[in-house]
Every structure is written in C-alpha cells, then in structure tokens.
Design goal:
Blueprint: H1 4-20, H2 25-44, H3 50-70, E1 86-95, E2 100-102, E3 105-112, E4 121-127, E5 138-146, H4 159-165, E6 170-175, E7 180-184, H5 191-212, H6 217-225, H7 234-242, H8 253-272, H9 276-283, H10 288-306, H11 311-328, H12 335-349, H13 357-376, H14 387-420, H15 425-456, H16 461-482
Parallel strand pairs: 4-6
Antiparallel strand pairs: 1-3, 1-5, 2-3, 3-4, 5-7
Helix pairs in contact: 1-3, 1-12, 2-3, 6-16, 7-16, 8-10, 8-11, 8-13, 8-15, 10-11, 11-12, 11-13, 12-13, 13-14, 14-15, 15-16
Length: 489
C-alpha cells in the first residue's frame, strides 16, 4: 500500500498513452518500450527492486488496455440524421436531474419514455413557465427537437461535443405556461422520491432568497449555495472574471473541502469544550475527531446534493469521503493514499475524466488541502490560556487559512494558464483573501441559512440581513479590485 500513490500516477499515465494510441501508435509504442528500458536500468542500478518495477510497468500497461476497453470509439452520425435536422416531436418523459432556474426560465433534463425515440435524453428550456418542475416529475410537451450544435469556428469551443459527453442527444425550447404538462408529481418510487424532496428543498431556498435578498447578493447566494448561476448579473460575472476568482462560482473541490474543514473544526472544538468528566466518558467509546467526522460528512454530502449533485461535485465528494475514512481509521498521515484510491475509483468509473478540466481542478484543490492538513497535523494542539494566547491562536488560524488559500491557488494556477491562455496575476492576490472568506465564512453561513429554511420552513430576516451584508461585502471587494486595469495577461 506504500506504493499506492505511485501506482495511481502510473495508471493515469497509462490512460494518457491509451488515449493517444489510435492517433500516434508508433510513438506510444516507442514510449512504452522506453519506459520498460528505464525501469530495467533503475533496477540494475539498485534504485528499485524487480517486484516494484514489474508492478509499476504492469499498472502502466493496464491503464493503456483499460482506456481501449472502457472508452467507446466515436461513431459518425448516420447520414439519414444530419447534424442540423429539426423534427417536431411529442415527448413524454421524466425529469432526471435537478431543475436549473433563472429569471423567467427553467432548464430541464428529460429522459423520454419511448424506446424508439431518436433522442432519449433531451435538454428542455422552458421560457415563461407556468409551474415549477422538480427532479423526478413526469411531464409531457411538444417541441422542435434538434441535435446539439457546436461551434462553427475552427478551434473554438465545441458545445455539441460538450453536451454529448453528458449523454444529451436532443435539445428543444418551448415558451408559455401551457407548453409543458405535469403528468405525475408524486415521484414515490425508490430514489426518485429522495431526489424530488431535495429539489423541493432547493426550491424553498431559492424562494427565500428571492423574497429576502436583493441583487446582486441574491445571484451570488444562489450561485454559491445551490449552484444556480442563472440569477447572476452579467456585470458581476465580469468582475469575477477580471479578478481571477471566477472559479468561486463553481461548486467544486475547494468549496466542499473548505466546508468539510470548517464543520470538522467547529464540531471538534465543541466536543473538546465539554466538561472534563463528560469528555473522558465519551472518549472511552469514540474520539472527538470521529465525532467531528460524523457531523462533517453529512454536512458536506447535503451541500453537494443541494448544489445540484453535478458530476464534478460528486467526484469531489468521493475524494473527501475517502479522506475522512482514512482519518476515521487513524491514517491522518497517509491521506495521500486515500486520494490515490479516490483517483483510481473515479477513473475506473470514467477514464475520460482524465481530460475533464473540472475534475483536474477539483482534484488538485482537494490534494493541496490534504497536503496542507498533513503538514499542520504535526503541530501541537491549542491550549486554552489568557487573552494573549487567544490572540495568538486566532492569528495562527488566520495564517492557516491564508496558507490553505495560497496552496490551492498555486496548485491550480498552471491549469488556469494552460486552459484559459491567461495569467490572472490579480487572482494570485485576491484569491488569498477571497478563497478563505468564501469557503470559511460565506459558504458555511449560507449553508446554515439554507438548512434553517429547510427545517423551519420560514424566512429569517436576521439571517437574511447577515447574508446581505456579508455577500454585499464580497461584491464591493470585487468591484473595487475590478477597477484595476490589466488584471490578466
């Protein structure tokens, strides 16, 4: 198990080789042969034993073979169904994903009932809707279906390929309150009832935000808490882009990781603050860290579900779950092994995630946090003392938050430069403050407000006022930073 991180890295390298095998077969074969020779030379020099060399090279070849077997080859579209063909269709189906809302619009993913339908998974945009749909509802509508359409510019973003990777093979837009009919809203079968209930919770949070928060605070709150960016004003999105903090609008590994850290720290501090007799009695059966994990994991899981349970978010949840399992078993110093298991689990499920930018950013964010946690675990536990000691502890926590933010920013900077062809130099500075402020203050408090709304069914004016002030403070900070020219190269 000590080789697990190395095996995971070699498996990823094998997947990368397998992805290029059909394009550059000779080059990949030469590369694999070169790696074999390299392992042989390392073995003869005594830097690695024969068993480890054989295991690593076998894992590399396994990655190549697994990509070839698990990744379907792209098939050309039938000539009878041109790319831009549009057909009028009457569709009955079920909503199979959380409904995304924006001003005057709902975006719905529908799985059709007809087995012989040209499009099984349809992305439906309903303008001026008459009712609010939820995950699990069965609906009927009529519309002009067309296949996903991509960019016509050479080298431009291929939206068609992006949508098709999500399994969507049909798209349509309908307008009017009567354009979609609700057939069945009970959704009491198996998991559909759970997803339906979660979507109703999202609806309650959205309604409370609309009723109590003003723009642009409302859009920022909904984007960071339930993953709906449809209410974000364009000017605010531009400020995020200019300041290099646009990643804060995507609920990814950094969001979930920071929420997990905050929940774990708060619960652990509360447990350690119990009377000594009660704490001693409790410690005979379970440690404070394990109690903190019991509260932290459900909090992170609920946040992931409320955020829409998107693929990137659930991948981050898998990473954090395995890290918490390692901590539960007492392997805090081996969190890297838990990350290796998470990496292998995700890639065995979908090898194509290797090239997914959201997966790469989430993995690097969580890995950076894990490394920072491993570094700080060697520090002695805080001791309660006088005011100066309290001040020192607060300063220590602030420095840890800044170091965590800096580690995440530095770890993800190469990917940002590579994919977006820009160096957001301002983001290097703004993220040092924006990341901990978002992940340690805004998101946990926003999630608390969301849970309050779910449990009480009422809107708290006091909590809403606090959210208005805190999210408004971030908006002012973004606006101030965005005034500086040349925020990116």
């Amino acid at each position: 198990n000590l080789m697990l991180p190395s095996l995971a890295a070699v498996f990823v390298l094998g997947l990368l080789c397998g992805a290029q095998l059909s394009f550059f077969p000779l080059s990949v074969i030469v590369l694999l042969a070169g790696v074999a020779v390299g392992f042989s030379l390392l073995e003869r020099a005594g830097h690695i034993d024969s068993r480890s060399a054989l295991l690593l090279y076998s894992t590399l070849l396994l990655g190549v073979v697994y990509w070839s077997l698990a990744t379907p080859t792209s098939e050309p579209r039938p000539t009878s169904q041109p790319l831009y063909e549009t057909v009028q269709a009457s569709v009955n189906g079920r909503v199979i994903a959380p409904v995304q809302h924006s001003v005057g619009r709902q975006t719905i993913l529908v799985l059709t009932d007809e087995s012989d339908s040209q499009a099984k998974r349809i992305r439906l945009v309903w303008r001026d809707p008459g009712i609010t749909l939820h995950h699990g509802d069965r609906i009927a509508f009529q519309g002009k279906l067309h296949r996903p359409r991509g960019s016509l510019n050479p080298g431009g973003f291929d939206y068609a390929a992006y949508v098709e990777r999500q399994g969507i093979d049909g798209m349509t837009t309908v307008t009017g309150a009567q354009a979609v009919r609700l057939l069945d809203a009970e959704a009491s079968i198996g998991l559909w009832s759970i997803w339906n209930r979660i979507d109703h919770w999202r609806d309650a949070i959205r309604a409370a935000a609309i009723n109590t928060l003003s723009q642009p605070t409302r859009g920022l709150f909904l984007g960071m808490i339930i993953g709906e960016r449809g209410y974000l004003e364009q000017e605010l999105q531009d400020w995020f882009m200019v300041t290099g903090t646009v990643h804060l609008l995507s609920i990814s590994g950094s969001h979930l990781g920071l929420v997990a850290i905050v929940a774990f720290w708060l619960v652990r501090r509360l447990v350690l603050g119990l009377p000594s007799i009660l704490l001693l009695s409790l410690s005979r059966t379970v440690t404070p860290s394990k109690i903190a994990i019991l509260f932290a994991w459900p909090t992170v899981a609920l946040y992931a579900l409320l955020a829409g349970a998107e693929l990137a978010t659930m991948r981050s949840l898998v990473m954090i779950t395995l890290a918490m399992i390692a901590m539960w078993l007492g392997y805090e110093r081996h969190l890297g092994h838990a990350m290796a298991v998470a990496l292998l689990t995700i890639l065995l499920h979908d090898p194509r995630a290797t090239f997914d930018i959201s997966f790469q950013l989430s993995f690097l964010s969580v890995l950076a946090m894990v490394r920072m946690i491993a570094i700080t675990t060697s520090a002695n536990a805080d001791v309660v003392g006088d005011d100066s000691q309290l001040r020192d502890r607060l300063m220590s926590h602030a420095l840890k938050a800044l170091s965590m933010s800096g580690a995440v920013t530095v770890a993800t900077l190469p990917l940002v430069v590579f994919y977006f062809n820009q160096v957001p130099w301002m983001g290097i500075m703004t993220n040092l403050i924006a990341v901990p402020f978002t992940g340690i203050i805004l998101v946990p408090l926003g999630l608390f407000v969301a849970l309050w709304t779910i449990m009480t069914g009422a809107e708290s004016l006091i909590l809403s006022s606090v959210m208005e002030q805190l999210f408004g403070l971030m908006v002012l900070g973004l606006q101030w930073c965005a005034r500086f020219p040349g925020g990116e190269w």
